[in-house]
């Protein structure tokens, strides 16, 4: 069980590294296929500061932490599935399978087990623009997922803060929810003059001066203060962090990655190394909604189960 009431087995058919929606969905479906499954979760969810997650059918507005807790309880309810809190330090080849080793966290046992198959579902880490008070408003008035939180911020004067080359694209998307939007590049030259003109035609401003801080009163964001002291009133907005896949523990496997470091897989989540799969945000195109990650986990579970049987997923249509 999650709090590790009994010792771990020495080996499993499948070890899932990561206990978010992608990893737990993978584990749930494999448990129902009667596979012996271990989920190893580092218990450091990226969305820990987010109060509500949206767009998840039957769970719209659920706390992401509650969603993870309910998922762990559902997986743990199966006798052939176990969830533990541990930070995986190394994933290596061991004989014809794999070895997964890590140190327990939050009362979880240390992990040192082997598996026939491994599913990587560790998601991404995110680096925010270097602005002192961003974290004070992140998850309440400032968000990173437009599709997840655009509806709640609709009709308000919003900021889009970031330093990446896709700011203009994200600004265009945000115009579906607000007609009062300013893009803050924090001194980075990532919005071209052509993009700025296109945004201006839609009423979107571009502020290129560096940001001193985000300001507010009694925990409520009121504006963005620039380095020269100018305060631009804003009621909330969106950040564009820099996301990086959390894959350091798997470096020894030398898995194929794309130019941004995400694992390259086929449509069913198979990586370049047979027996290793990936689900959710560790694969391109990167961060997605929670329900999309859960769906990816179900897809990967079907592929894993069929591969363990020796039945290729692509052959299912002839049965």
UniProtKB/TrEMBL annotation:
It catalyses: [thioredoxin]-dithiol + NADP(+) = [thioredoxin]-disulfide + NADPH + H(+). Residues 12-297 form the FAD/NAD(P)-binding domain. Keywords: Flavoprotein, Oxidoreductase. InterPro entries: FAD/NAD-bd_sf, FAD/NAD-binding_dom, Ferredoxin-NADP_redctase_2. It comes from the Bacteria. The keyword Amino-acid biosynthesis does not apply. The keyword Flavoprotein applies. PANTHER family: THIOREDOXIN REDUCTASE 1-RELATED-RELATED. This is NAD(P)/FAD-dependent oxidoreductase. It comes from Leifsonia virtsii.
